[in-house]
Amino acid sequence: MPEFTGFPVEALDFYDDLEMDNTKTYWEAHRPTYDTAVAAPMKALVASLADEFGDAKVFRPYRDVRFAKDKTPYKTHQGAFVPKGPSTGYYVQVGAPGVRVGVGFYEASSPRLASIRDAIVDKRRGGELEEILATMQASGWELGGDRLKTAPRGFDVDHPRIELLRHKSMTLGKSYGFEPFIHTPELLEHVRADWREATPFVEWVLRHAKA
Fold this sequence. Notes:
The chain is of the alpha+beta class and about 210 residues long. About 45% of the residues lie in helices and about 20% in strands.
């Protein structure tokens, strides 16, 4: 695998133009740019991280439009995901807004979600999660995910961790935007450091999300 050298400026320009002209004509005319400026660097990046975090799935650039109102054929970013459990793991993407990293679980079966909520309710385990999230948010991570508008059934609306209990999925993301280092080999160490920082959160989910 070639050494990772960063995402060239052409990668961001490619997606900037794709957002304006999301057509097969544009794609076919610029496919070589996608291959060399987007796909190849992404594969090199995740390959360089595989020894520590595991093998990544580099997503296909094509959207599944079978049941979507939006019929544009191509994704406007390139993502890669390292699975560590069901719908749980590490993420990185590049697009017109630059580079972004993420971690967490993007969906959960009813039994897994129930076990996560049981852990959140528990004073020790829920307190541990609060500490992990507070530390990450203090260093720039943003907490996201799908949430209920009210308390989940069977839980007290006045519970001290009700905001966490409302989550149906839970993710943390950090954007590098247009930082100059995204175009250099230095990006690899930023992603590595952030994924390491996020590992306690991933491990908390894996410990408490029971099938």
